[in-house]
């Protein structure tokens, strides 16, 4: 099983931010968490607003807490808003129901962590997160 080390987390962040530059998106913040929800690495680009680290960790942490991407959490929020709203206070990093938080799995489909990205539109955040994970040879849980 792959482990999210600082080196691997840094590669994910670098590739995520490179994709942001290629696409001309706004400055981003990227957080990489291990399977237990512990922060391994975080980077906030110059120009990204001040609450971005917390949002990035909440996207990734929410995905880990519920076992689905933050995009799917957003879909759940439209069906069960009270339930999703109640999770924020009991989650260590909070829960942000918006695309940009994805679960990282290894070649065997084992969960190895999550990445959360924020700073542009949620769809753009997610596109960069997916590129960051793919650049390492890992996959995301669909």
Characterization of this structure:
It is a single chain. This protein is of the alpha+beta class and 142 residues long. Strands 2-1-4-3-5 form a five-stranded antiparallel beta sheet, sandwiched between helices. It starts with 5 loop residues before the first helix and ends with a strand. The mean pLDDT is 97.
Spell out the blueprint of helices and strands:
Blueprint: H1 6-23, E1 29-33, E2 39-44, H2 52-66, H3 70-79, H4 81-87, E3 101-105, E4 111-118, H5 122-134, E5 139-140
What attributes characterize this protein structure?
18% strand; 142 residues; globular; 5 helices; alpha+beta; 5-stranded antiparallel sheet
Cα-atom radius of gyration: 14 Å
Major sheet? 5 strands, antiparallel
Number of helices: 5
Q: What is the molecular shape?
A: globular
Low-pLDDT stretches = none
Helix content: 40-55%
How many beta strands in the DSSP annotation?
A: 5
SSE pattern? HEEHHHEEHE
Percent range for β-strand residues: 15-25%
Give the structural class.
alpha+beta
**Overall average residue pLDDT:** 97
Strand order of the largest sheet: 2-1-4-3-5
How would you summarize this macromolecular structure in one to three sentences?
By secondary structure, the protein is of the alpha+beta class.
């Amino acid at each position: 099983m792959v482990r999210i080390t600082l080196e691997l987390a840094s590669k994910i962040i670098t590739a995520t931010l490179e994709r942001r530059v290629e696409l001309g998106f706004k400055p981003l913040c990227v957080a990489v968490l291990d399977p237990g929800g512990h922060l391994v690495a975080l980077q906030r680009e110059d120009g990204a607003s001040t609450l971005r680290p917390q949002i990035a960790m909440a996207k990734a942490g929410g995905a880990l807490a519920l076992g689905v991407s933050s995009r799917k959490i957003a879909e759940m929020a439209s069906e069960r808003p009270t339930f999703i709203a109640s999770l924020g206070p009991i989650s260590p990093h909070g829960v942000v129901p918006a695309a940009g938080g994805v679960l990282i799995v290894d070649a065997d489909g084992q969960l190895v962590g999550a990445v959360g990205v924020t700073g542009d539109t949620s769809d753009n955040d997610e596109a960069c997160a997916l590129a960051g994970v793919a650049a390492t040879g890992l996959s995301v849980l669909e």
